């Protein structure tokens, strides 16, 4: 049994990731309007009504914008930890009680041959967490929206086949950019977002013998660019003795266009 995924869209304007095996399929976050989410699904040849559920990482609008609409229209199970459910109250409208499921941090749920493990990250939300998908010997890690990558996180996500990994900003662009200083300070903080260079340092520490791909995700529209992110990450990895294209590949994500639906 195989596991496939697509980063439907990723960036500061919205985020959504699709993961499936032959039995189940899940959407991680719904950071776009219901209509936009339907359009993204159509681009990968999948239907929202076929989902087994939606997994929520945290309550920021670029991750839950379409959650309430999709929950009500398609009657889907929604999974989030209790602090995130509390924080979403009033943000996503009414969701029927029978659709609301608690997924505690640092736990795992099993859906047939697919196991989904949750882990905490460092971000300015109620209780932000991301997910590791396991299917047989395959391991897919989804991790954005964290100010840093702790040793605990590294232990959980180490040696995956594929990573969707935050590479949010170029520090120079951010410091010189138009954002007010309080926003810059938040992004640079331990509860903000990971820079290109810090992402590469963490990648070097978690990549293992079976690691094939890192998808650079959640790029800032104002403080990063795809080419710059790839260049910065590649250069930092080279200082760690890792040559991109030999040990693993770096792949782009896009704020509007899904990545191809591929096997992990």
Summarize the structure in words:
With 264 residues, the chain is of the alpha/beta class. Helix content is 28%, strand content 24%. It has nine helices and 14 strands. It has helices at residues 34-43, 61-64, 67-74, 82-88, 151-157, 171-176, 181-188, 196-206, 226-239, and strands spanning 4-9, 16-20, 25-28, 53-55, 78-80, 100-102, 108-111, 114-120, 129-135, 138-143, 162-166, 213-217, 249-252, 262-263. The chain has a seven-stranded mixed sheet with strand order 6-5-4-3-2-1-14. It has a seven-stranded mixed sheet with strand order 7-8-9-10-11-12-13. Helix 1 links the parallel strand 3 (25-28) and strand 4. Helix 8 (196-206) crosses helix 9 (226-239). The protein starts with a strand and ends with a strand. The mean pLDDT is 97.
Annotate the secondary structure layout:
Layout: E1 4-9, E2 16-20, E3 25-28, H1 34-43, E4 53-55, H2 61-64, H3 67-74, E5 78-80, H4 82-88, E6 100-102, E7 108-111, E8 114-120, E9 129-135, E10 138-143, H5 151-157, E11 162-166, H6 171-176, H7 181-188, H8 196-206, E12 213-217, H9 226-239, E13 249-252, E14 262-263
Parallel strand pairs: 3-4, 4-5, 5-6, 10-11, 11-12, 12-13
Antiparallel strand pairs: 1-2, 1-14, 2-3, 7-8, 8-9, 9-10
Give the integer mean of the pLDDT values: 97
Got a strand count? 14
How much of the sequence lies in strands comes to 15-25%
Structural class: alpha/beta
Q: Could you describe the largest sheet, including whether it forms a barrel?
A: 7 strands, mixed
Which H/E pattern describes the elements? Answer: EEEHEHHEHEEEEEHEHHHEHEE
Distance between the termini: 11 Å
Order the strands across the largest sheet as they lie in space. 6-5-4-3-2-1-14
């Amino acid at each position: 049994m195989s596991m496939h995924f697509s980063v439907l869209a990723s960036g500061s304007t919205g985020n959504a990731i699709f993961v499936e095996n032959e039995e189940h399929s899940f959407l991680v976050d719904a950071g776009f309007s219901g209509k936009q989410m339907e359009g993204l699904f159509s681009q990968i040849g999948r239907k929202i009504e076929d989902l087994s559920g939606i997994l929520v990482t945290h309550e920021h609008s670029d991750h839950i914008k379409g959650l309430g609409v999709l929950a009500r229209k398609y009657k889907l199970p929604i999974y989030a930890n209790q602090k995130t459910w509390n924080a979403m109250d009033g943000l996503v409208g009414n969701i029927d009680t029978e659709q609301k499921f608690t997924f505690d941090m640092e736990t795992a749920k099993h859906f047939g041959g697919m196991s989904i493990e949750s882990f905490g990250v460092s971000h300015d939300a109620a209780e932000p967490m991301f997910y590791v998908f396991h299917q047989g010997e395959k391991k897919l890690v989804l991790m954005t929206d964290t100010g840093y990558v702790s040793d605990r996180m590294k232990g959980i996500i180490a040696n995956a086949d594929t990573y969707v990994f935050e590479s949010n900003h170029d520090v120079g662009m951010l410091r010189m950019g138009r954002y007010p200083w309080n926003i810059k300070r938040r992004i640079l903080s331990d509860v903000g977002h990971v820079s290109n260079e810090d992402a590469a340092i963490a990648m070097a520490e978690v990549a293992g013998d079976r690691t094939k791909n890192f998808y650079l995700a959640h790029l800032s529209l104002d403080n990063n660019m795809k080419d710059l992110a790839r260049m910065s990450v590649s250069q930092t990895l080279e200082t760690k003795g890792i040559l991109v294209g030999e040990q693993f590949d770096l792949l782009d994500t896009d704020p509007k266009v899904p990545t191809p639906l591929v096997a992990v």
